[in-house]
Amino acid sequence: MATSTAPKSLLRPMTFPRKLLLGPGPSNMSPRVAAACALPLLGHMHPEFVQIMDEVKEGIQYIFQTNNSLTLAISGTGHAAMEAACCNLLEPGDVILVAWNGTWGERFSDMAARNGADVRIVKKPAGSVFSPQEIEKAVTEHGPRVVYLTHGESSGGTLQPLDGMGVVCRRHGCLLVVDAVASIGGAPLYMDKWGIDVLYTGAQKVLSCPPGASPISFSAAAESKMAARRKKPVSFYLDMGWLANYWGCDGQPRRYHHTAPISNLYALREGLAILAEEGLEDCWRRHRRCAELLHAGLEDMGLTLFVDRPEHRLPTVTPVRVPTGIDWKEVSQYVMKHYKVELSGGLGETANEVWRIGLMGHNATPDNVRLLLRALKEGIDHCRSKVHSSL
Amino acid sequence: MATSTAPKSLLRPMTFPRKLLLGPGPSNMSPRVAAACALPLLGHMHPEFVQIMDEVKEGIQYIFQTNNSLTLAISGTGHAAMEAACCNLLEPGDVILVAWNGTWGERFSDMAARNGADVRIVKKPAGSVFSPQEIEKAVTEHGPRVVYLTHGESSGGTLQPLDGMGVVCRRHGCLLVVDAVASIGGAPLYMDKWGIDVLYTGAQKVLSCPPGASPISFSAAAESKMAARRKKPVSFYLDMGWLANYWGCDGQPRRYHHTAPISNLYALREGLAILAEEGLEDCWRRHRRCAELLHAGLEDMGLTLFVDRPEHRLPTVTPVRVPTGIDWKEVSQYVMKHYKVELSGGLGETANEVWRIGLMGHNATPDNVRLLLRALKEGIDHCRSKVHSSL
């Protein structure tokens, strides 16, 4: 039987420009991470690979500041970790309270509803955060078994204060799930001290790894809820019972579950190692310093930050308002064309309202801040001069 | 607040040996694929990346021999593609007939049951395949909406003949799902001509890519069934409605759904390009020739192949019986220690019964066959001499 012919598009070399990714993620890989991606494959059950998995686990425990034994990386990108939290923790009929102040609350609500949960929402506009009092009021009203909060809301650029939220949840007998995809490593977070029960993140932000392996951790209380499930989770791929075994978290001999994304775990191991070498506190400080430099520079240019209160600003992703009369997209295209720098638009509520500037991991340097400010100013001036000349 | 200290295990370089992976997967990456893994990241919505996604799609259409527009790569390893097939196609109460002749039928049954399907099973021992008559008899008995078959059953080493199965399924108004994780590129398969409705595979076998992005394709009939769903799939991450849009399969402007595993898609693009350059038919022939060379060599050594009939042998993964009195694991360990070659054990029914030898993609060369045969013979001789000297 004859075959159809090979597509011509594949018969030429793959070429594309090197860009500086200063959007909300991915950030650029560090050279060490890139080198790790190209290392020869090992089998997914080989002892050398199991050791790398163990080191990844220790690294995640460190960046999450947790001693949870059920700590591992999901074999997918950040949304897969969100889904793993959802589908393992929630059972049909469970009431979950989602604190929704941007795209990630919306996404978690969608996933929870698909899993049959009874989703209750407490909503605030993008750019604002929740107080423990607001959460306690909503918890009292809805009586949820699980509460969801976004630590780093990259659509609205907020850093949700979490200290005290665990106490509220424990007082009302519910579990606390936190999304830290955009914030981990870029702002203080103490999973155990703050009483967070489920925490997850992605690889392509502060860790400066390619997306595809996503850290997650569950407290003993979350494990108890999962152990008491009436039915298995719908997902086999994300079933925490199987994954706990594959990642050596249950004290049993490891059984084959699925083939892990081997190269992504090499990269994640290296990204975690780079963070461990710098030290978590120094890494938090570096991100804070770069963000402050950026914020000052933007205000010097006469621009307005989307988040009013400095203490609620996410250091890793900064939304800044697009001035009246300027087309955000034209400026972004100018910056890409002339500097090969990514400058993102808004997302969800903030679409067309803001640019979002990411300074994460390998990319969080004063030099990149200065380059971005120069490029943005030029882009805005270019658009303004076009507007004027067309009047 | 003080942080816990960084784990010492991360503060030393990552080192491990280069191995020749002649198990059932992963296979070794080709140098071009490894180089692609280290390329600088692009944004997951950048035009250059969208072009790579388009090329990946064309490459998958080619290796699947399909014109289906709903053709893309799932952002996870092979099991994620299996789960995507399951959770999008099946609704609670749907009857599915699973042809189970090894581990993959078992896995698909598990996933289908989690999705609420009414799972009926037609079972044969590992090492045997199904005839169209056997499938038609079971379809007549159970009246399923969906039939599942494994093309390359890597646990039993069988290549399931598929020509004629699509006709049976269409005659009875059901859809045909085929798992080709272990076979694609290594044995003839014509998705459209054979009337397959859903086909999926992995990246780490004949494509010689790192695991983490997994090709899948749906026929128009499968799309119709999905369009008529009463409820959304439980998985948001794997929701084919969203993914069809993100992969440009629905004719609408692409919306952000999730961050794709960017480097894995670079690698997949390169793996598909290497296969396109060789040509699908030549690639099938190379795998067939290497398998025949291996089979002859094993029989020359007095060993017995697990699958009796040559036409039912999977060219990519060969199970061979462990001779009486020999410990399979000891031989595998010998071969790893002295040659750094992976020689796998059995899986499921074939555990402890066989070694499994994989010759896939970059690794499918006559030189590798000869090396494996020499190493295996030495390993067996070594174990025999130990047995004798202990008598």
TrEMBL record, chains A, B:
InterPro entries: Aminotrans_V_dom, Aminotrans_V_PyrdxlP_BS, PyrdxlP-dep_Trfase, PyrdxlP-dep_Trfase_major, PyrdxlP-dep_Trfase_small, SP_NH2Trfase/AEP_transaminase. The keyword Phosphoprotein does not apply. Coiled coil: none annotated. It comes from the Eukaryota. GO terms for biological process: glycine biosynthetic process, by transamination of glyoxylate. PANTHER family: ALANINE--GLYOXYLATE AMINOTRANSFERASE, AMINOTRANSFERASE CLASS V. This is Alanine--glyoxylate aminotransferase.
